[in-house]
Write the structure tokens for this entry.
Amino acid sequence: MAGIPAGVEPGQGAGAGGPGQGLNSGPNWPSLALCHISPGKRRQSAPGGSLHPIMIDPFGRAITYLRVSVTDRCDLRCVYCMSDDMTFLPKRQLLTLEELDRLCTAFIRLGTTKIRITGGEPLVRRDVMRLFGALGQRLGHGLKELTVTTNGSQLATHAETLAASGVKRINVSLDTLDPQRFAQITRRGRIEPTLDGIFAAKAAGLAVKINAVAMKGVNEEEFNAMIAWCGEHGFDLCLIETMPMGDIEGDRTDQYLPLSIIRARLRQTWTLQETEYRTGGPARYYDVRETGRRIGFITPMTHNFCESCNRVRLTCTGTLYMCLGQEDSADFRPLLRAGVSDDQLEDAIQAVIARKPKGHDFIIDRRHDKPAVGRHMSVTGG
Ligand SMILES: C[S@@+](CC[C@H](N)C(=O)[O-])C[C@H]1O[C@@H](n2cnc3c(N)ncnc32)[C@H](O)[C@@H]1O
Ligand code: SF4
């Protein structure tokens, strides 16, 4: 793993992101001390107070989207994501909620407009609603969107607090509508809490997008039913190809299903109209004329989406990955714990963005029996 680039000396600086700002006062979360947003010497405010993105990578892409994994733990063990006997990190290695807030806030000062909280299962992290409360205070002050990807198992408890924090849209992973198949795919889950969570989110006014990983011979016959179900309840649907990340105790060539095949099959039942709709992510969307909802396809294997990549990923231990499919990374935890100043933190982030690679090299076939990257999606944050 590469270290933080030269120019930042751990131990220097005053740690300007310390406690004491006390900005958050949301209805359902205890106080989380916040670092304040200052204009910063390298930032310019645009008319109307919006902030220009100033993180441009070596390939000219503006980096405006940060995905943050707040835990590597999960209450499920989806077959494409984890092995059954995962070893999780000791909790002391995780960034505290205050450290996560400080780092996210530095990214916002540098032009990050969208933050997605993910994991592992983000909603199993204790007190994570405090982080949503704190980041929600940044909305309208540089941050335009705060969102979350969840398996939905704890969503019934948290949906209203998420909405009160300013979250408007969420992604919920649901690969099947069949209770038995759900138990098989997740190795230990029950579908009811996830369905309850989805409907609680809808009731709280959150727009829900269902994410389903397409698996050969597992759920490939279900997508017509899922499109109809999503149409009935007002959800968009996004199908995802399996990506070769982390050891999963199985052969990925058995799971891999190119979505080009699925799309052609779906066209026999549904009228799919191409649309320019984008969520800033890699999905290509189509309107489903019969339901009035959208279906997206995320195809890292059959279509390389790197040319429009606008994101970087932060793990729960403070490691920043510039690409989901590459190993290069930088560890921010030592800097945070050495008490660097906000300026030094921003310099370090900018220097790491300058190392963002052009793209990933995912490939799944029988000659490549090792994952393209050793870490699981639950570590980097899917
Ligand atoms: C890692 S999970 C984390 C958030 C939450 N636990 C959930 O399941 O939504 C984020 C997304 O990554 C997807 N995912 C996990 N491993 C994957 C893989 N190897 N290939 C493709 N998608 C994967 C999941 O289906 C989920 O939609
Ligand atoms: S996909 Fe999400 S719910 Fe499934 S094991 Fe991975 S982190 Fe957990």
Q: What stands out?
A: The domain at 54-380 is CATH 3.20.20.70 (TIM Barrel). The longest strand covers residues 207-214. The first helix runs from residue 97 to 109.
